[in-house]
Hints:
Oligomer: single chain
Number of helices: 4
Distance between the termini: 18 Å
Amino acid sequence: MVNIEILPLKHEDLEFFSEVRNSCAVEFLHDSRKFTLEETISWFEKTKPDYYVARVDDEKIGYFRTSNLDIKEGTIYIGCDIKSSHRGKGYGFMLYKKFIPFIKEKYKLKIIYLEVLSSNTRAIRLYQKLGFKTDTEYINKIYKNDILIDSIKMSLMTDKTIYEK
């Protein structure tokens, strides 16, 4: 049995966070910039983000980020980045199945949104398996390696999720 923990991102997690984020930036993230550890620490101290470390069997393997929380509307954007050595092994599905009920309960969410690059077909299949539906496709929104790539907005209605306890 796999033990999954979702814990608030802390100062001592920032080196891990920075390494994972930078390894995902060019291929998977909308923002391709890479940051030094010092820049990451400064960002963390200034913004105090609502981010979470994902641990599997006591090993940090990724993190969740949240943004655009709207308490009144019950909406939030989420995303997850996983360490390269742990990608393609089914951890994303397990982590999201743990994180979605957690974040839903924490903020009493009605809708969870995410955005994914159209080139990230593995992630799109994962989100569809989790129950996310495509809302909008923004044509040629992001430059990656001098190529314009579409960005897809997806949503999950939390009252219809497979994650209920």
